[in-house]
Fold this sequence. Notes:
Distance between the termini: 41 Å
Bound molecules: adenosine monophosphate, tryptophan
Shape: globular
Order of helices and strands: EHEHHEHHHHEHEHHHHH
Amino acid sequence: MTDPAPVPQPFPPRIFSGIQPSGGLTLGNYLGALKRFVEKQDEGIQTVYCLVDMHAITVWQDPAKLRHATREAAAGFIAAGIDPARSILFNQSQVTAHVELGWIFSCIARMGWMSRMTQFKDKAGKNSENVSLGLFAYPALMAADILAYKATHVPVGEDQKQHLELCRDIAIKFNNDYGVNFFPVVEPVIEGAATRVMSLRDGTKKMSKSDPSDQSRINLTDSADDISKKIRKAKTDPEPLPETLDGLKDRPEARNLVNIYAALAGQTPEQVIADFAGAQFGTFKPALADLAVAKLEPITTEMVRLMQDPAEIDRILGAGAVRADALARPVLDQVYDIIGMIRSRPR
Ligand code: AMP
Ligand code: TRP
């Protein structure tokens, strides 16, 4: 894949990011994405955040569960500090520009590019003949999510880096093919101590809402008691914490817990190691559990409160969709014009 020098961008800064409502939100989503979405909002840049329900159905979703998970994720965003008056918060299927541009990008992206996507290979596994066509096309829709808003910066966890490179390639190819400077070449924003939160059961695997073991992850809906238990039972090694970060090199589970602590406390991993040098896990784990409960419990409580009024959540998503549509529709109108589609329907 091409890795061009950054193009000077005449585009005003705008943040876009998305999360799939394909299950509950995890601590990985919170630290890798959500917490940073809030920081970006608070920096005063225009922020557009989307629950990507169309992406979720690339693998089977029970309709009632999808509806519930979408509302719950919206509640999680708001509970974590996304203010629907300052950020645009909506679910993808309510703004049809995404799938329209997604199709156009399916005609820009090349089979070879898509075949190299490691997330597709991981998700399809040995079953690649039997997964949905949508799962293969997934990154083209993701590029459309971003570029329908001409977003310039996309905060995500480490696992999305390759998809964002593809988004850059699609923008560049579109601009070249049509001889325009229409789409920005987006910058991934992968920052902080916890860009890849690992499973609590296996420090070499990503913490994921689709892991069969609930012990492997902390869910934003977990009780204080569950959070504490999961952290106390997290897999570790018998050594105490080292004096320097270097000492964590071949200790993925220990490294993960230190990173989680740092991200939750708003510190660097170096500071955490300085404070806990030589500590046993018998000391460190309870400290981490207390910190996690202190940070996550208010979010969980607020999520539960918001979920008592699903109609209000739907109203917020609908209002967000109207605002999102107002940004994306003029972009799509221009795209149709650029690519030579007749648009003569009376309005
Ligand atoms: P997903 O749940 O796959 O839709 O991911 C939504 C966002 O959360 C993306 O920006 C991911 O990169 C991020 N994310 C998901 N899991 C993790 C994890 N274990 N560590 C860090 N970020 C994550
Ligand atoms: N693919 C992302 C994930 O699984 C979710 C996503 C869809 C997204 N569209 C996006 C993230 C646009 C950032 C921008 O995590």
